[in-house]
Write a structure and sequence with these properties.
Layout: H1 3-12, H2 38-52, H3 67-75, H4 77-94, E1 105-109, H5 119-123, H6 134-143, H7 150-162, E2 165-173, H8 177-186, E3 194-198, H9 207-220, E4 224-230, H10 233-236, E5 244-247
Parallel strand pairs: 1-2, 1-4, 2-3, 4-5
Length: 256
């Protein structure tokens, strides 16, 4: 596809489902415009690059000097534009896939910060500046109010139209199934093939192992995993990986 065609895809992403009602499909947080010094802006831009390329390795909180930078990024146009680019690249690839036509052409999605945005939660918890509190986050999940990432919602619908079977593979626990389904449906996601959550035997596995095992199960069932989308490298790496993996930006937290 020519560069001009690729940008045409990006341009229409927000318009693909105009006219359909997705109550939670817009991230309803006002853009921030905190003053960030030139020195901090350069430092934090490089830090975010290191995070997205997985050079930073494990980290537990964002640098204190980058709090305003990250807040500006995730609530502003840059985050949405970066997400649009990832979705555009994903669609470009998906349209070139030679489908098997056996009903087992698959695409795997992570959920948090991939399909659903937890920005309303992180807005109240420093946009990654605070140490993660699982109990507080679970209380947020129970509300089933996480909005969709607009670019991911458009990608999800486009993949369905192309004939991909959609599998959802999340680090959430099995006891959160009902609220997760409720939230997904409320935010515009539907007709997935299967939703994987951590069962009792998965609870202490690193994400990269747990998700690799689930992908391996799909392959053993005869599915071809053409594509995979996630905000963490642990969503995408390991074994039984997709033919192409697409990393959605997330400078707020890291999961091994």
């Amino acid at each position: 596809m020519a560069a001009s065609d690729r940008f045409s895809v990006l341009a229409i992403l927000p318009l693909l489902f105009l006219g359909q009602v997705f109550p939670q499909s817009i991230i309803q947080i006002s853009p921030r415009n905190h003053r960030v010094s030139d020195e901090d802006s350069i430092y934090c831009d490089s830090w975010r690059f290191s995070v997205e390329t997985n050079d930073a390795g494990f980290w537990s909180t964002i640098p204190k000097r980058c709090k305003n930078y990250v807040e500006n990024y995730v609530t502003g146009d840059r985050y949405r534009s970066d997400s649009d680019f990832v979705a555009g690249d994903s669609i470009t690839f998906a349209r070139t896939v030679r489908m098997n036509g056996d009903g087992k052409d698959a695409w795997v999605f992570d959920i948090d910060e991939t399909l659903l945005s937890n920005l309303p939660y992180y807005e109240a918890h420093g946009f990654g500046l605070e140490i993660f509190n699982e109990s507080l986050f679970d209380e947020w999940v129970d509300l089933a109010e996480a909005p969709a990432l607009p670019a991911s919602l458009s990608l999800y619908k486009e993949l369905q139209q192309l004939g991909f079977k959609i599998f959802l593979l999340t680090g959430r626990s099995e006891y959160q199934r009902n609220v997760t389904v409720e939230n997904l449906l409320y935010s515009g996601f539907d007709n997935w093939e299967r939703l994987f959550l951590r069962g009792p035997s998965d609870e202490h596995k690193p994400a990269i192992v747990y998700k690799s095992e689930k992908r391996s199960d799909l392959i053993n069932e005869g599915y071809t995993i053409h594509g995979s989308s996630g905000d963490q490298w642990s969503d995408l790496m390991g074994f039984a990986v997709a033919h192409r993996s697409f990393k959605i930006p997330n400078p707020m937290y890291y999961i091994a």
